[in-house]
Design a protein that fits this description.
Low-confidence stretches: 100-108
Shape: elongated
Strand order of the largest sheet: 1-2-3-4-7-6-5
Number of helices: 9
Distance between the termini: 33 Å
CATH topology of the largest domain: Protein Transport Mog1p, Chain A
Structural class: alpha+beta
Radius of gyration: 25 Å
Strand content: 15-25%
Mean pLDDT: 81
Helix content: 40-55%
CATH class of the largest domain: Alpha Beta
Number of strands: 7
Number of domains: 2
CATH architecture of the largest domain: 3-Layer(aba) Sandwich
């Protein structure tokens, strides 16, 4: 089970009502310990569920509703229920809360930076992927990405300018072009591994919730440490195997 599958399962979890030991939820809940983003979402999910449940309990039943329903059943009347102001108001509140819940309780935005970061890390970790272009010439990499309409006017941090490039991939994220530039960090690599340091570049308009400035934000995602920042109209993400101090060397 991955993080996305866990989120979909935990969407059904009702705090205070469901058993955390229930096999239906146990595996998804276990992933929370090793996934800070999933844990943060789950805390919000539970808090929102409790808040909405409390609001629903506060909705007053219109006076005389029970008697009115019973009398209408006996008389077989056909009055449309939603024309009555009291019932209409109650229905409007319920509809509003359901609408809020559909937004608050959904998994993190599909176009959010956190979702983008997870997907790029999965791309970097994917075994056997083939680069579109294999070269150590960073100018050729830029030219190739430009030909594919992927971001090519990115600004490389000085350490990456000096790093050994290995190639690139032109990706897309929700229809927006992404440049993946591959490097070698200088550490020994295992058999068949061509790169262990990756830079992803996307336009700001292509992802929401990105880091606001040049100060990198470090986050461990799966087996890779990531650093994300924004500069100009671009959002940058570096991913590598190592701790924060190691990734800082390439900022």
């Amino acid at each position: 089970m991955n993080s996305r599958q866990a989120q979909e399962m935990l969407m059904l979890y009702r705090p205070g009502m469901d058993d955390a030991q229930d096999p239906q939820f146990a595996e998804a809940l276990a992933l929370i310990k090793d996934d800070p983003e999933l844990a943060e979402w789950f805390v919000q999910h539970c808090a929102t569920y409790v808040a909405i449940r409390g609001k629903l309990r506060q909705i007053a039943v219109p006076a005389g509703l029970k008697e009115q329903i019973l009398s209408e059943q006996k008389a077989h009347r056909t009055n449309v229920w939603w024309r009555r102001p009291a019932l209409l108001a109650a229905a409007a509140v319920v509809a509003l809360l359901i609408g809020i819940a559909s937004v608050w309780l959904q998994p993190p935005g599909q176009d959010s930076f956190s979702a983008y970061r997870r997907m790029m890390v999965r791309t970097a970790l994917r075994t056997g992927y083939t680069m579109d272009l294999e070269t150590n010439d960073l100018k050729q990499i830029r030219a190739y990405l430009a030909q594919r309409n992927a971001p090519a006017d990115y600004v490389l941090p000085q350490p990456l300018e000096k790093a050994q490039g290995t190639g690139c991939v032109a990706l897309t994220w929700h229809g927006k072009p992404v440049s993946m530039v591959c490097f070698r960090s200088g550490k020994p690599l295992g058999p068949g591994i061509k790169s262990d340091l990756f830079l992803f570049v996307i336009d700001r308009s292509g992802v929401s919730g990105a880091p606001p400035g040049k100060a990198p934000q470090f986050t461990q995602v799966s087996k890779l440490m990531t650093a994300g920042w924004s500069q100009g109209e671009k959002v940058y993400l570096v991913a590598a195997s190592g701790d924060e101090s190691f990734v800082r060397k390439f900022q």
